[in-house]
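Supplementary Note 3. Input sequence used for the single-chain structure prediction.
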Amino acid sequence: MGSLLSLRELVIYSNDLRLIPLCLNKLPLLKIDVRDNPLGRPPTPPPLSPTPDEAETKLPELHIGFNQHSFCISSAGCHVFLPGGAELVFPPGCIVTATKLAWAEKRPQRKWVQLEEHEILLSHPLELRPHGVTFLKPVEVCVPYHRTKRKEVVVRTFDGQSWSTLPTELRRGSESHSSRPGGRPARLACCSVNHFSWFMAVSRPVKDSCSVTPAGGLLVSSADPGVKLHFPPDSTVETRTITLQVLQVSMSDVQALCGDPQARVSPLLCLSQTPSMHFLQPIKVQIPLPSGVTGHTVDMSCLHLLHGDPTAQTWTDITAQVSLYVTHLYAIFYITHFSWYWLWYTTQRCVSGAVRKIYQRLKQFKVQFLVLQRKTDPSQVLLQCLPSNKVESRMQSLTEQYDGPQPSDLCDLLEGEQFFAGFERGLEISTDRPDCVGGRLCFEFYSSLKNLKEVYICSAQGQKGPVRGQVSFYRGEIPSNLPEEVARKRKGLDSQWLTTLPLRLPALNSENTFIMEEVEYPPLNLGDPESGYLTEANLLSISLQIAQDWRVIGLNLGLSYQELERIQYKNRDNLGALVLDMLFHWARAQKNEAPGAVSRLVAAMIESGRRDLAEEIEDIVNIGKRKYTESLRRVGLEAESSSLGEKQQ
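The predicted structure, written as discrete structure tokens, is reproduced below.
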């Protein structure tokens, strides 16, 4: 395997597409088909079949609870399942003696997250400790991530000073570790490491790379095979590492943003190299013509090649400075240094300015802000910022438990941009929070994450009457790589304001509780008569026996930490009401779930160490089944006797 990896790094193509055998003495029988190898690298060899011992050996599983942040691993190895979907695979012999390890998943902050151009954060940073521990064999770290389209997903790790990218494999998680009963396993981005640190999943435009020697070579994009780089012999003296990224751009977005319905663009090429210096010979670049444009119909006066400077965020029309010609499907030009290149077909005269504005807009997300209050407790406020295409489905999922104004108007935010939420006109946050800066809640926007916080508010003056206030959202600190067009709009006192949405707190009565209409729920029965069911009276009887075990039972029922914290705050002075609220909150959510709620309740009681309650629930259910069976038998006998009487008549 080591020989294959070294060959993968050293072998490239020459201009005549013949393979240069640099390591054939190590692999004399290796045969490579040029047609199956567009990147100039040998195909990945198939995995070796496991030995009989490996096939029979299955690692023991260890499932970590939400409130369990440390665990022990022995030299026998283990497959660890963390809450939220992450998995860790410790092979046998990776450590000598039993070692205590820890994990933590934290909110993404700028000091922990550093993204490059067009990258999107797909997971919360996962910290594995201690950072200094070294494993004798590679340990597999699998980070769950949200789905992404037409981009590759990689795992990033932090070494204490900078982030680096690890070789990543994508797969589905274990069936036994699904996020919910009957749900699909999580998507996992997996990597092998020898020590612990911070890890996060990131999506980016597909990145292809190869090493170019003085003999020349060929690099073909795996995202778009029509993009090719030809390196002639003697274009470099020393070996260089070449990196190619292709960013696909929506035609409709470009036409709408630039106001030209006839505008067409090619994929955006992002080229880089190490070391960064001019080539000794011109490099031939082939790129597909914009969609709808062919070599027979192209008007060369409308075809523009744009050169982008990623540092200065500028675009320059270099059509007249390069040798640009077209075939039926492709445009070909020659360059001696690498940067960004974009082919445009438009009738507009000032192309560079339009391209700069379009590129800046492509980096932004159209977002909307949600501000909702809990129907049963208006002091509990949910704040969320989502891309506009996710807002409608999110609102539908919240309507049963929350109420509030419609989502805000559309606003523009960048991936990783900071913004604040401030309560105004007689409202303020009722508790101290570490993420509250100057009375305002601090957020970091990431398009694939929830960007969600729930807080409790109170009247700023403490008056008993109702309060009509509002919450306003403001931009935060300006990112260092903010596009010029966006930064220019932020000058002035009100330039940071994004949107304002109303809030209302009802008046308080003499018992210091809100005067509001009682929420009426339909009768609550779990299960069905045939398989047995629990009535509201049954649930009340069960809740009276739960007492201090309510949090463990709630977690085993599948309630989140946030839901349990909310219930505890709402019933902070009444344990009985707290337990009842927790149990009924879970039960109401079961009406939209698949059958089996009673079985899930029994399993949660057993898992929480309350087998006594599990047996009581089973007895109640069995009584219900027996009554149902007797009623069927009685109805059947009555029907039979009625039929017999009719015959006798």
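Confidence is low (pLDDT under 50) at residues 1-39, 51-56. The longest strand covers residues 134-144.
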